[in-house]
Write a structure and sequence with these properties.
- This protein has ten helices and no strands.
- The chain is mostly helical and 170 residues long.
């Protein structure tokens, strides 16, 4: 996707309808017509990127949460500018982000958490995943980090999920 390539390589400020249209050799109004503006384009890019993030079909709910968050972490690490654009534009909450959030909530409920704890743990896990990926992406380590092999994130996530399982008031 040309828009994602432009965003990943040149940053959020470079992602304009005019720049994208020039890259594609089309009129900027074509992009506006198709996506309804920049927010629509950001939503479409997000949905395309995060559609690939899925939990395992088998395994314990905790294992499935872990795999889902590792996949999500990898995508945020590959496309940090996209994540920052979503954060900076409250009107953009892509369908795939909503699906992932709902899937985490469902899996947390399967762990046996009450509703109020499910929302709390969902937010803790998602915020931790975002923070970890964005911190790595913004550091020198991000240049050499293979999203599939980020052992520091995996170890910390395992500790969080272990704490979740052992929480006495779950």
């Amino acid at each position: 996707m040309a828009a994602l390539d432009l965003l990943d390589n040149d940053g959020a400020d470079a992602l304009t309808m005019r720049a994208l249209a020039k890259r594609l050799g089309i009129n900027p109004m074509t992009i506006h017509h198709h996506f309804g503006g920049r927010d629509g384009l950001i939503g479409a890019m997000s949905d395309a990127v995060y559609a690939q993030v899925r939990a395992l079909e088998n395994g314990t709910p905790v294992d499935r949460i872990g795999e889902l968050l590792k996949a999500y972490h990898g995508h945020v690490l590959r496309h940090p500018a996209l994540t920052m654009l979503i954060f900076s534009r409250p009107t953009v909450f892509p369908q795939q982000a909503e699906r992932i959030t709902n899937e985490i909530s469902t899996l947390l409920a399967e762990v046996g958490l009450p509703d109020d704890r499910t929302a709390l743990w969902r937010d803790i896990l998602v915020d931790f995943t975002h923070g970890s990926a964005l911190a790595i992406a913004m550091s020198a380590r991000g240049l050499d980090c293979d999203p599939e092999e980020d052992q520091a994130f995996t170890m910390a996530l395992t500790e969080l999920l272990t704490g979740l399982i052992r929480a006495p008031d779950r």
